[in-house]
Amino acid sequence: MALVVLLGVAALVPQLVPGSLPDQLQDGITLALSVLIESLPFVVLGVVLSIVVQVWVPAGTIERWMPRRAWARRAVLSLLGMIVPVCECGNVPFARGLLMRGFTVPETLTFLIAAPIVNPIVIITTHQAFGFSDGILVARLLGGYAVANLLGWLYSRHPDPDGLLTERFRDACELVAPERGGRWRRSLAQLVVEFRAVMPALVIGAALAGAVQVVVPRDALLAIGSNPVLSIVAMMALAMVVSICSNVDAFFALSFASTFTSGSIAAFLVTGPLVDVKMIALLRTTFTARTIAGMVVVVLLFSFALGTAVNLLV
């Protein structure tokens, strides 16, 4: 509505509108729109897959193929991204569908964390960018799989797993569960629920990503790229800021390969898809702030350890 009003003012009373915006503001808007446009197709795909899982897949079909032991179920679910090639933006609505279907929070978290990395598109693009040089591809895949199962195990120890979810999401589950009518009617109802929850978070996350990128001086991050420890911290911070889709972030990281250590590149490729500002905003639609804070801490510590190990081994 604000955009429509501004466009109307610009058309009717052009003298009230400045000829051009400040460069920094223009850059921020451009970056925010680029994140939004890049993410939107995957969000739509994730919502569609979520509806398919909840409404169209018969009850028990997925569960029938799952192992009975909790750790084995999490291990299998963390590989589900291999057949659901959606980046982190679309994985959130898909994970919401798994939760509404009855999967536990730790099981869903395991899929949610692993899928943005352990999927065929990300594997192909990372290989195209780095091949098998310096162990970056292997470190990314093993790191993503390992941290996902680590988080799943940690939160499986929580005394009240449902307490990890927001009250609003729990209310949405209760509203959707007793929904009656044909499949198309239930699909439409679920479509409305998912888009109302995800789209505001996506827009806010994209705006934050654009704003942070023009405020944080990137030159300061690049200046410490050769230090084996500080380079990892800098690339992890950069990953959280730029909020690039995991399907293409390897090509962005490739531009830093000549000045940053291999370990810092690996840490960037693990951190970004899991806890960038856009992803955190999307996670907030489902998980409590305390849960997300714990996830961020675990991912950052794990990514730093992974980057350090790569620097020592390569």
Helix and strand layout, with pairings?
Blueprint: H1 2-12, H2 23-56, H3 61-64, H4 70-77, H5 88-101, H6 105-114, H7 120-130, H8 136-156, H9 167-176, H10 183-215, H11 218-222, H12 230-242, H13 249-254, H14 262-275, H15 277-283, H16 289-313
Helix pairs in contact: 2-5, 2-10, 4-6, 5-6, 6-8, 8-14, 8-16, 10-15, 12-14, 14-16
Overall pLDDT, averaged?
Answer: 80
Strand content: under 5%
* Class from secondary-structure proportions: mainly alpha
Helix content: over 70%
Largest sheet: none
Strand elements, count: 0
Give me the number of helical elements. 16
N- and C-termini, Cα separation: 53 Å
The topology string of helices and strands comes to HHHHHHHHHHHHHHHH
Identify low-pLDDT runs: none
Taking Cα atoms only, what radius of gyration do you get, to the nearest Å?
Answer: 20 Å
What does the overall shape look like? globular
Describe this protein with a few key phrases.
single chain, globular, 16 helices, 314 residues, mainly alpha
Note down, in words, how this protein is organized.
The protein is an all-alpha fold and 314 residues long. It has 16 helices and no strands.
Give a quick summary of the entry.
The chain contains 16 helices and no strands.
